[in-house]
Amino acid sequence: MTIKKVDVHCHVDQYSPNELETIFEDDSCLVVGAATGVDSGERLLQLAEQYQNLRVCLGIHPEKPEGYLERDRVTAQISANLDRIVAIGEIGLPWYCLKEMTASEKTDMRKRTDELLGHFLKLARTSDLPVILHAIKETALFALEQLKEHRIERALFHWFEGSPPDLRQIIKSGYFISISPDLMVNKAYAEFTDNIPLDSLTLESDGPWEYDGTRGVPAMIEATAACLAKRRGLDPEEILKVNLDNSLKLFGSESLIPVKR
Q1: Pick from 195, 200, 211, 226: CA 20 to 30 A from residue 82's CA?
Q2: Rounded distance, CA 157 to CA 175, Å?
């Protein structure tokens, strides 16, 4: 089996059984499944027993406040499965869910999520695991501060969108940024990704998130690579190779290379 493609961020547990069979028919693609909470994580761990090209991350999605109370359960879940996971994630800071909140509600929410992020970064440090971050727009700088405070060496800012100065700080810090299929349907985002150097980028589907009505799946990695290659005057295979190499650096080659079962 030769691995050519890696989807570094996908909510695999949210697909139907038929969709999963189609996704994992392609044995040249590794898929990194990101959990959103304890039940999501359990489902991913179960699916990883069934599909050898699935890798698992465990965490609590910051845009799901109802999951914050699962902190201790997810912590125990991570600790019990250190040999079965490749990262802690999806974790990070809320942005979308804050829009409808009052100022006091936002303050309370940020206090809770700041503490939660610090908790999981400490766990990542002691476990020597990378982290998958949801930290967009103005939340990026605080996330960067926390990464440095906890001495996290490997991190992915998944589908990051923000200011050019913040992007430059992420790149300067040596962290990775994943590019989503939104590249193909969103001109502003496509132009933003032009500023991400090859040695900092990876590719993701963030499936099953939809792009102009099309359900996201890991197979979109190829089309995303082709679109990115066209924008940069490169061959799509070169982009796929860059994505693979950077994914190995992020997660570690021993974590991603398939093993016989």
Answers
A1: 200
A2: 7
| pLDDT score of 186 more than 90 | yes
The confidence score (pLDDT) of residue 102 equals 85
Domain that holds residue 22: 5-256
> 231 in a domain, yes or no?
yes
Q: Which positions ≥6 away from 25 have C-beta within 8 Å?
A: none
Strands (E) located in 163-213: 176-179, 201-203, 210-211
User: Is position 214 within any domain?
Assistant: yes
Hey, what are 63's tokens?
């845009």
Q: Is residue 261 part of a domain?
A: no
pLDDT recorded at residue 138: 83
Structural domains of the chain, count = 1
What does the alpha-carbon distance between residue 257 and residue 259 come to, in Å, rounded to a whole number? 7
Q: Tell me, what CATH number does 67's domain have?
A: 3.20.20.140
pLDDT bin (cut points 50, 70, 90) of residue 165 is very high
Residue whose token pair is 């490749």? 86
